[in-house]
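I hope you will forgive my troubling you with a question about protein structure. I am sending you one protein, given as its amino acid sequence and as whole-number tokens for its backbone shapes. Thank you for your consideration; the sequence and its tokens are set out here:
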Amino acid sequence: MKKVKILTDSCSDLSKELLEKYDIDYLRMNTVYNGITKPAELTWSEDEAHELYNIMRKGDRILTTQVPMDEFDRGFRKYLKEGFDIVYIGCSLKQSSSVNTGCVVAKKLMDEIPGSNIICIDSLNACLGEGIVAIEAAKFAATGKSADEVKDYVLKNRKTILEFCTVHSLDSLRRAGRVKGPAAFFGNLMGVKPIIIADKNGEQAAFKKVKGRQNSLKEIVSLLKESIVKPEQQTIYVVHADCSKEELDPFVELVKSEIPCKEIYTGYIGPIIGASIGPDAICVFGIGNEVTFAIGE
């Protein structure tokens, strides 16, 4: 039986540390700014993160693309040549069509290369929610499981990822078309902060609204505390869009004091998700009971 390589994409927000720890690779989406297209690297430096978020703080918009077909071809071929079966875990189809593109390229390569196996899966998540699905898949694959066994495991568990996120301003969500202009204006005016989750269908949208930044930070910790299962066995993941140390450190301490977890990981929201959600957003992730909430129901 062939070994399994887990691939994800730039929406997963896995840092260099996490990619190396779990032997995961990722396929690059792109950012577009001032007519210049760049690969959306997750192994970026703090200075590069500051630069991207400062562009947005000036009011400029950064555009993004899905994973290009040639990037899928490059990544898939690389690991097929190394003798792997591949499981690609992509951003929710509600937010990116990359999984569909991956399926097209995968079929072409499997027709071209006898005996190859490439499985493309919609994670029903984005940001580090997608990353956690990839991490759990990599841990499972490392126990000697086949690509089909990994697929079944992911499909069974992908709805157990808990995401709670809040933003500092609604401006970036407005520019990305996720919040209407008047709602963003009056929301900013009144200090309203949406609590954003990933629902059971992979939509990311406002679950509830809280007034004030500090209240929103407390609320996302409270919501995770209510929903997480066996936190003492888990890593809780905190990712942020260039928040200040003066805000981030107390937030991490709040998580520690409220949820008795094994450890807390902190990192950046990557360039693709960051381009939509904007500077100073902060998200907290864990694993719990299956998510049953759906936006609009």
